[in-house]
Structure to design on (241 residues):
């Protein structure tokens, strides 16, 4: 079916700025998820200007969360993830002052000690899980100072349960927040942040491009699963980029 104009009841559509490429604009959806997660923490009193933030996960959401943290006022940002290339190396270019490679620092106890060594003092003010792995939670709350805030936005698929002690949440006096994607009203925030910082961060270097054919799709998925890319991006036709 072909139509010149299709009405979509109940749907909000936002136009990208005329001088923003569709390739850059495609990052507005995942970036908006990160912005909303930080706004959730702000409204709960768990994130304020100058805070130290630890991001768990160095995939596309983790990398975008680093940029969002800086733009929304974080003083220091540390990233825990893997592999070094391409992911942790890019995390530092997005503003992570330090990274912890889970392939080298292999146990939770070692990673907790390393993060606390980096942040100093009593721990981070806010930890955000962008990894999607259930084991991130029990480890991440130990990165926090007492009274800190843990934001869970990475478990958007059900990866299963993990044994943990809720006593630690109580004993450390933590705020724990979940953040699920974003609303249509949030999306302009992601577009605006991309537009204002188009030259500040290496946004397009997140993306590895693949053609929209059977082989291209298979390679995009396989490379993403093997963490050879930060974000596999399938392009239906070259004019889009």
């Amino acid at each position: 079916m072909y139509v010149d104009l299709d009405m979509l009841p109940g749907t909000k559509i936002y136009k990208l700025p005329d001088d923003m490429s569709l390739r850059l604009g495609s990052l507005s959806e995942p970036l908006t998820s990160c912005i909303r997660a930080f706004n959730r923490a702000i409204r709960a009193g768990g994130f304020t200007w100058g805070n130290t933030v630890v991001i768990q996960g160095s995939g596309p959401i983790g990398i975008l969360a680093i940029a969002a943290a800086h733009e929304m006022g974080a003083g220091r940002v540390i990233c825990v993830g893997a592999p070094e290339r391409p992911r942790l190396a890019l995390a530092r270019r997005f503003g992570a002052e330090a990274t912890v490679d889970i392939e080298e620092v292999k146990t939770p106890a070692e990673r907790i000690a390393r993060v606390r060594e980096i942040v100093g003092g009593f721990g981070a003010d806010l930890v955000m899980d962008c990894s999607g792995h259930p084991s991130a939670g029990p480890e991440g709350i130990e990165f926090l100072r007492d009274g800190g805030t843990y934001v869970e936005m990475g478990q958007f698929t059900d990866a299963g349960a993990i044994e943990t002690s809720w006593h630690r949440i109580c004993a450390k006096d933590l705020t724990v927040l979940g953040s699920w994607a974003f609303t249509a009203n949030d999306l302009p925030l992601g577009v605006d942040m991309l537009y204002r910082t188009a030259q500040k961060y290496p946004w397009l270097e997140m993306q590895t491009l693949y053609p929209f054919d059977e082989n291209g799709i298979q390679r995009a998925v396989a490379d993403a699963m093997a963490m050879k890319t930060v974000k596999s991006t399938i392009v239906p036709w070259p004019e889009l980029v």
